Structure formats: C-alpha cells, structure tokens
Amino acid sequence: MMSAGSFLPLFLSLMDLPMLVVALEKVERSSGTLIGSSIATIQKSAAPEMLLALMDEAYTGSAVEEPSGNSGSDDSGPLDLTDPMFLDLLKDENDGIAAKHWISPTISSTLQAAFNSPQSDRLKQSLEMAPRFLTLYFATALRDVNDSLLCALIPVVMSRYAAMFPDKVFSFKVRERLSDFILAAFQRSPNIIAVLKKPITDRLGEAHDNLAKTELALHLCWAIGEHGAGGVGHKDVARELFENLELLLYENLATSRLGLSQEPGSDSMGASSRKSSQARLLCFVVTAIAKLATCHSELLPRARVSLGRSFPNLRQEGLATGL
Length: 323
Ligand SMILES: *[C@@H]1O[C@H](CO)[C@@H](O)[C@H](O)[C@H]1NC(C)=O
Description:
Order of helices and strands: HHHHHHHHHHHHHHHH
Number of strands: 0
Largest sheet: none
Bound molecules: 2-acetamido-2-deoxy-beta-D-glucopyranose
Distance between the termini: 49 Å
C-alpha cells in the first residue's frame, strides 16, 4: 500500500540508499560510533543533535544554523556536514538527493572519495539491497500505478540513469532495472511515449554526453520505433520524434566520420568502447526511423531520403532496410 505522495519520492530514496549510508557514516566518523554506545555517550555526541536539528528543519522549515566560513573545510570536523548536499539528504532521507546536487563539486568529491576508499560492510549491503528494492518498487509501479503517475515517474527515472553511486556492479544492476522499467511502462501504455515527448527528446539530445546516456538513448530509440511513437493516432508526435531521430542519425555519422575519438586524454580503451556504443546507437536509430515510417506511412518518403543520404551504398544495392 503506497500513497501517491510517497510513491515518487520513494524512488529517489531507494536509488540513493548507498549515498545515505555514506552520509551517515560521515556523521558517525565525526562523532564516534553510536552503535552499542551508552545513552550517556550518545547524549554527549554531536551527531544525534545534528540529526534532530535536520529533522526539525525538515518538519518545521526552520533553518539549521550553518557555521559561517566552513566551505572547503577538511574531512575531520562536523562542519562539512553542513554541506548542502548532506543537509538535504539527511534532513529527509525519504527524498534522496535533489538533481541539482548531482552536479555539485561536493557530490563529485564525495563520490570520488567513496569510490577510492574501501567500502564498509554497511555500504556493501546497501549496494546489494538497493537494486533488489528497486526491482520490487518497479514491479509494484507497473502493477498498481496509473498512467499519470508513471508519466511523473519516468522523467525522474531517466534523469537518474547516468547519475548514481559509482560502483560498477551496482550501477550496472540499477541501470538494467531502470531501462527494464521504462520499456515495460511503454509496453503497458504506449501512449506514455507521446505524453513524454519532451523529456524523451531531451534525453535523445544528450545521447553523446557519455556511455550511460548513449545507452538510455538507445533504449528510447528502440521504444519509439517499436510503439510507433505512441501509436497511429499520434502523427504529430511521430513527426517530431522522427526529426529528432534524423538529427541523431546525422550527428552520429558526423562524429564517426570526424573521428572524434582522438580527443586529448581519452585512452584507446575508452575511445573504442565509445565507438562501439555509437555504432550500436546508429543501428537503433536507423531501425527506429524505418519502423516509425512503417507505422506512419506519411513519413516514408522522408525516411527514404534520410536513410538513402546516410547510406548511399545501401541504397544502390536496394538494401536500405527494406524501404
Ligand atoms: C492516478 O493516481 C493518482 C494517485 O493514486 C490519483 O491522484 C490520480 O487522480 C489518478 N489519475 C487518474 C487519471 O486516474
């Protein structure tokens, strides 16, 4: 049983469970362990006071006092807990981390530090648990939640596809669950693709930012083609998504021809995986264009032109995806 009001925030708190562990361990490190301590010790510790103040702020809106001039403080004192990211996370662990903090220098340095230091047992357990919770959460969402709530959830899910705790196994598992969910939601209600046209095109526009975003774009392309951009009734949406796919096609061809893999500082391993993911994306884009034109026949002439231009050899041989 989940109310609509707690359903959306729950996603972020499950995603950010490992971050919460990192934040709480930071509190603990600056105050000494609280587990097994006597009440008297806990009462003397600054940590519960800190957490109470944060909860108070969350419920009453009264501001937690931030000691001034603490920016860039070292890792030892309790001061760095007043960092905005930790404040937001700790004052209500049900909210996860606000999107804006994922691009803050604090979070990148925190994640870097967490990434480079040995993981505590608690962190390891949270990295195991969070993907399982997400599986349950998404199963519940697909079974019990109506389309309007799914339409609210999917953009949040997409926004976190490339922003999560940077543990290799964890992020692999989580991404798998996120994309499975998005695809299953589109399968259940193809109409959602039309409703979410804007956030979907935004994500397609970021396809070349990094490998995770390329992967998300690839899934979205597949879904757009498979479900005809929401169905035969959505001609305008189909045309707009078609144009975005064309753009992706031309961009992809341009970058692969220019050989952008020779950026300074990119190792050959990174360059080759980027190349192969771009090639995969190209396949999905071409397939989506062909499928979209099959579902919406008014797009056929245009699909012939754009695919023919991109792959002149294929056209000569009459193999251009059967169009
Ligand atoms: C969808 O579910 C939410 C939460 O249960 C509810 O508030 C909303 O009115 C429902 N929307 C529709 C269109 O049924």
